[in-house]
Amino acid sequence: MSNPLLDFSSLPAFDRITPADVAPAINTLLERANAALETVTAADFPAQWNAIAQVLDVATEELGRAWGAVSHLNSVADTPELRAAYNEALPRITEFWTRLGADERLYAKYKAIDPATLNAEQRQALKNAVRNFVLSGAELSGADKERFAQIQERQAELQQKFSENTLDATDAFAYYASADELGGVPDDVRQTALQAAQAEGKEGYKLTLKMPCYLPVMQFARSSALRERLYRAYTTRASDQAEGDATRFDNSAFIREILALRQEEARLLGYLNFGEVSVVPKMAQSPAEVVGFLRDLARRARPHAEKDVADLRAFAADHLGLADPQAWDWPYVAEKLKEARYAFSEQEVKQYFTAPRVLAGLFKIIETLFEVAIRRDEAPVWHPAVEFYRIERGGQLVGQFYLDQPARTGKRGGAWMDDVRTRWLRPDTGQLQTPVAHLVCNFAEGVDGNPALLTHDDVITLFHEFGHGLHHMLTQVNERDVSGIGGVEWDAVELPSQFMENFCWEWKVLQHMTAHVETGEPLPRALFDKMMAAKNFQSGMQTLRQIEFALFDMLLHTEHDPAQDIMPLLGLVRSEVAVLQPPAFSRTAHTFSHIFAGGYAAGYYSYKWAEVLSADAYAAFEETAQADGSPNQETGRRYRQAILEAGGSRPAMESFKAFRGREPSLDALLRHQGMA
Asked: What value does the CA radius of gyration of the chain take, rounded to a whole number of Å?
């Protein structure tokens, strides 16, 4: 049978790809890509955008698609065999992309292209390409160039190790609790834990550090000792503080080396530090502007956060008999205070959010707002739980997506959107390639034949990832490098995702996407009003927590000496920003995958930065809402055209101004979070 990774005629054959396919396919595609590079860099090859695209972009796109399928399986269906095949190919893949990005012959070709021969999309893509060449070391020579390439390879290896350690440390922990210890823990969580223990032939209830188990135990378990056990295991994952042999997953050495390599990379490129390198392709102009933005927001949020903590302490002392709550008590205290203050619990709300109903409600909004239709579709998948859909407008295919919702072993935690392929007017066939996306979550599975129940936070996560998906799939740009999320500044890429979250707080929307798991009744208005009242519960604390991560990340990449331990810096940031100090053993930075393995290095601030953009964009919908509260379709159309369809074909600020008619303002964000 032919190698499924070499078949680009339609969608990836996820049901047929095996670890044994990886090496031969990657060898073939690297050969093709290298041959294409040699062809286009020959002295007699024309310095023309389309000519280069026909040869080189076609070869590299196929390599990217095949490797994307392997990387995806590595994230959602990890096995020892696949991991070995992935890790064997990773250095060669990294070496190729590094060499391509720094090839001075190719750089010279691109610089020789006459911008007057290009359309607006191509001109933006050319501008980005020239900038990226410089950031990839194309202007370096000799030993510096060689060293730059080594750094990239080693970084890729280290980031993968960091990710593996985080996943393995999470998967390795299990605590088999007795029924007595689980007082207060929701029934569905208990049931899942019981089934997990039974499946292993063990007594008791298997508790893990996966979010659908960890979070409800922290919020609801009455046993402080149980919460402490899980909290300690969770906050010491992949660190020197882990218990017993779990220290084998310690990420400390990897963190030091990653930071040292980034510092060296920045110096080679002529920058003082990695923070400066990171902001070059972003909306923010400098690390100082980012730090100023974060500190300004921290100052505005602080009074609200201090009040949040005072409320928690008073409630813990007066109602729970906790005179001195510890770090593992806070989620429990917060949940109890929320229940007392707003007279509802996450658990009560969850009964109304069945996964199928939520999905149907989400689809209805997308269909109404963006004038499309979403239908079930067929494609090979990697797990029976995965669904596949198509998006159409006027009977024409616009894009397709895979949806993988449940958490399982071998699937990394969190939620993300990834591209399978990008919209592109293909230069080799002249055909329009439609975009395809992966949308991945980690929700709890249904119990006893019932549909899966989502927390309201899960619903927000689903809407968030769909925002990314729509940005990728609804683009109307035909140039691959700036279509969808391609070429969009990193600190603007969260705008469409955070924008979608706002709909999770609209009564008109929630009516259509809730049905009680037993009675089928929609969410009662009284419960919704309580949720709204609780919406900004602890928003001051949550804002400071995000600022703590973002400020730590930026200072780590601008002021920190990589040879030193990171914990003192984290301590300084916490003493400046945080209103609750974690225990000395906490090592949450050791699993901070966003910045050590996920592309957000010196860029975690992007979430807060984009929140300003998304809150302001959503304010346009609030200003134009119809009399019954439903969103105005014309505003939806303007947003789609100015932001989603434009993709990366122009600077994000231009797209924002095209929609809002002005630059963004902080006001809407502070108002939405009850801090105005």
From this structure: 25
Q: What single string gives the DSSP state of each residue in 354-384?
A: BHHHHHHHHHHHHHHHHT-EEEE-----SST
Structural contact between residues 303 and 544, judged by C-beta atoms closer than 8 angstroms: no
Distance spanning both ends of the chain, measured CA to CA: 63
203 is catalytic: no
Average pLDDT over residues 359-385: 96
Distance CA(207)–CA(124), nearest Å, equals 51
The predicted-structure confidence for 265-304, as pLDDT tens digits, reads as follows 999 999 999 999 999 999 999 999 999 999 999 999 999 9
Q: Is the pLDDT of residue 394 over 80?
A: yes
Q: How many CB atoms lie within 10 A of CB 37?
A: 19
Backbone angles phi, psi at 405, to 5 degrees: -95, -45
Q: Are strands 436-443 and 416-421 parallel, antiparallel or unpaired?
A: antiparallel
Q: CA 341 to CA 315: how far, in whole Å?
A: 10
Q: Is there a contact between 193 and 174 (Cβ–Cβ < 8 Å)?
A: no
Q: pLDDT, tens digit, for every residue of 213-261?
A: 999 999 999 999 999 999 999 999 999 999 999 999 999 999 999 999 9
Q: What is the CATH number of domain 347-486?
A: 3.40.390.10
Among the listed residues 335, 465, 501, 645, the single catalytic one is 465
CA 330 to CA 587: how far, in whole Å? 18
CB 670 within 8 A of CB 543: no
The count of C-alpha atoms lying within 13 angstroms of the C-alpha of 410, restricted to the half-sphere facing its C-beta, is 13
Amino acid at 676: A
Q: Whole-angstrom Cα distance, residue 248 to residue 64?
A: 33
Average pLDDT across the chain, whole number: 96
The residues spanned by each domain of the chain are 4-159, 173-249, 272-346+539-596, 347-486
How far apart CA 236 and CA 220 sit, in angstroms, is: 21
Partners of residue 391 on adjacent β-strands: 374, 399
Which H helix or E strand runs over 421? strand 416-421
Assigned CATH class of 4-159: mainly alpha
Q: What per-residue confidence (pLDDT) applies to 1? A: 60
